[in-house]
Amino acid sequence: AAQKETLEFQTEVRQLLHLMVHSLYSSREIFLRELISNASDACDRLRFDALKDESLYEGDGELGIRVEYDKEARTVTISDNGIGMNRDDVIENLGTIARSGTQHFINQLTGDQAKDAKLIGQFGVGFYSSFIVAQRVEVLSRRAGVPASEGVRWESDGEGAYTLETVELPRRGTQVILHLRDDMDEFLDGYRLRQVIRTYSDHISLPIVMPKEATGEEDEAPGDETVNKASALWMRSKTEISDDEYEAFYKQVAHDFEGPLTWMHNKVEGNLSYVSLLFIPKRAPFDLFNREQPNGVHLYVRRVFIMDDAEHLMPRYLRFVRGIIDSDDLPLNVSRELLQHNRQIEKIKSASVKRVLDRLESMAEKEPENYASFWSTFGRVLKEGPAEDFGNRERIAKLLRFSSTHTDSETENVSLDDYIARMKENQTSIYYVTADSFSAAKNSPHLEIFRKKGIEVLLLGDPVDEWCVTHLGEYNGKQLVHVAKGDLDLGDLDDAEDKEEREKTETEYKPLVERLEGVLGDRVKNVRVSHRLTDSPSCLVVEEHEFAVSMQRMLKAAGH
Ligand code: ADP
Ligand code: MG
């Protein structure tokens, strides 16, 4: 072997290792789920790269994962014949944490071991969970397609540093050897390992094999057996899949520790054949508001994993949807560029959007409690919908929930249909007010006249609300009107008495208005006697076609 080099872990890795080892003792078996999921990813990646370059298989195209233990040596070994890593890959992947999620992860640790353990998979810091059970970890890896002499051996005790050396590795792929801590004997047991694999990794679509347990009577070493189901759950018929199986599958694809809120499983046959299995989670991922986050819906072509890519398969306003789409018709070597303008993908996407909207609609109708919980978790994301998906904006609008003066509560539970049902007899518009916060909206001086007349107003306290209603424009033939815009014409809502009084006031204040116009000059467009205010002496309004005040502030803050 070439000379051995010692390198330091990045600070974050050291922090993480420390936390992991000290706080996750009670969930120690998750190390196996994490290492198997990495092995499975590595096989998926090889399969994908080999679509362009068959030689990467090096004559061995039967991809799989192997788990073994050695009582004497006190080791558990997880190996795969996937893509493997070269020296730079190893330094990058096992010595640093490239993802921004790690700091979030560390911040979110609660000290509650069960909860913290569940965060691990979600944050993609899985490999380091090896150190929960191992006092020393060895990784032997060789990248597919490089010579056997370019294997890499990585080793660490998880304290502060690791060593690297170049070694000869005839076999492509990765082998992770865990030298167990003294109190981890339970994993030197074939039944315990099988149980953990079946609990967490049953739906991995590759075979996970283990040597058969020896009975002590055989002459030769017993052969291997496949431990997991190793079949693509989504290909089975709905009626044969139990809720528990759907939930377990969801947890695996979404890296979630809780089951989903609901799921949609459809098989489409005909011109375009595909299967989709889509889930709406219960909880939001930590990076929900990162609009670039990948990992939403995974694309498969004839059972082969192609890529995880939220954008081409789901619009951004549905980026919380998780699951898989498996197409029979796309070419296996489909690239990201190709997906962008692919008519089949477009069709699959619009049908999938429709399914999600259908499900949300029926949930809103039939399971109001579930819908309320969905809304409080993902409502803010759905509000991006009218701007992004013009074609579906009426349907999205039906799903929106707002706060309003009807309850004056911050809980968003008023639909536009609720609002319309409560409109005054001659009311033709849906009124809303926007502000920087709910309480500012609720206390807006613009509302005085509306409250006095008993006209409901939607209270929008989030910039995305304004974005949303501006793009919506109208719903069910009713204009959405900002209470602060232009000349408030409450039209037929005024009674005759009010009108007479208004004219009287206007004449009375004419001299004052003229003086104010003189004083304020160019700083305002004009000064009007207002009938909106009943308690406050004055307020700012904007012209009908200008952005409302808070939007102007937002744009200013963003440098416009
Ligand atoms: P994640 O799987 O979320 O990326 P991990 O900590 O589990 O995070 O793994 C870090 C990285 O190490 C992986 O993204 C991958 O690039 C690399 N890696 C880990 N295990 C393997 C393996 N068995 N084969 C190839 N690469 C691996
Ligand atoms: Mg991983």
From TrEMBL:
<feature type="binding site">
    <location>
        <position position="336"/>
    </location>
    <ligand>
        <name>ATP</name>
    </ligand>
</feature>
<feature type="binding site">
    <location>
        <position position="80"/>
    </location>
    <ligand>
        <name>ATP</name>
    </ligand>
</feature>
<dbReference type="InterPro" id="IPR003594">
    <property type="entry name" value="HATPase_dom"/>
</dbReference>
<dbReference type="Pfam" id="PF00183">
    <property type="entry name" value="HSP90"/>
</dbReference>
<dbReference type="InterPro" id="IPR020568">
    <property type="entry name" value="Ribosomal_Su5_D2-typ_SF"/>
</dbReference>
<dbReference type="InterPro" id="IPR036890">
    <property type="entry name" value="HATPase_C_sf"/>
</dbReference>
<comment type="function">
    <text>Molecular chaperone. Has ATPase activity.</text>
</comment>
<feature type="binding site">
    <location>
        <position position="93"/>
    </location>
    <ligand>
        <name>ATP</name>
    </ligand>
</feature>
<feature type="binding site">
    <location>
        <begin position="122"/>
        <end position="127"/>
    </location>
    <ligand>
        <name>ATP</name>
    </ligand>
</feature>
<protein>
    <recommendedName>
        <fullName>Chaperone protein HtpG</fullName>
    </recommendedName>
</protein>
<feature type="binding site">
    <location>
        <begin position="100"/>
        <end position="101"/>
    </location>
    <ligand>
        <name>ATP</name>
    </ligand>
</feature>
<dbReference type="GO" id="GO:0051082">
    <property type="term" value="F:unfolded protein binding"/>
</dbReference>
<feature type="domain" description="Histidine kinase/HSP90-like ATPase">
    <location>
        <begin position="27"/>
        <end position="173"/>
    </location>
</feature>
<dbReference type="InterPro" id="IPR037196">
    <property type="entry name" value="HSP90_C"/>
</dbReference>
<dbReference type="GO" id="GO:0140662">
    <property type="term" value="F:ATP-dependent protein folding chaperone"/>
</dbReference>
<keyword id="KW-0963">Cytoplasm</keyword>
<feature type="binding site">
    <location>
        <position position="174"/>
    </location>
    <ligand>
        <name>ATP</name>
    </ligand>
</feature>
<dbReference type="GO" id="GO:0005737">
    <property type="term" value="C:cytoplasm"/>
</dbReference>
<keyword id="KW-0143">Chaperone</keyword>
<feature type="region of interest" description="A; substrate-binding">
    <location>
        <begin position="1"/>
        <end position="336"/>
    </location>
</feature>
<dbReference type="GO" id="GO:0005524">
    <property type="term" value="F:ATP binding"/>
</dbReference>
<comment type="subunit">
    <text>Homodimer.</text>
</comment>
<dbReference type="InterPro" id="IPR001404">
    <property type="entry name" value="Hsp90_fam"/>
</dbReference>
<feature type="binding site">
    <location>
        <position position="38"/>
    </location>
    <ligand>
        <name>ATP</name>
    </ligand>
</feature>
<feature type="binding site">
    <location>
        <position position="34"/>
    </location>
    <ligand>
        <name>ATP</name>
    </ligand>
</feature>
<keyword id="KW-0547">Nucleotide-binding</keyword>
<dbReference type="InterPro" id="IPR020575">
    <property type="entry name" value="Hsp90_N"/>
</dbReference>
<keyword id="KW-0346">Stress response</keyword>
<feature type="binding site">
    <location>
        <position position="85"/>
    </location>
    <ligand>
        <name>ATP</name>
    </ligand>
</feature>
<dbReference type="GO" id="GO:0016887">
    <property type="term" value="F:ATP hydrolysis activity"/>
</dbReference>
<comment type="similarity">
    <text>Belongs to the heat shock protein 90 family.</text>
</comment>
<dbReference type="Pfam" id="PF13589">
    <property type="entry name" value="HATPase_c_3"/>
</dbReference>
<keyword id="KW-0067">ATP-binding</keyword>
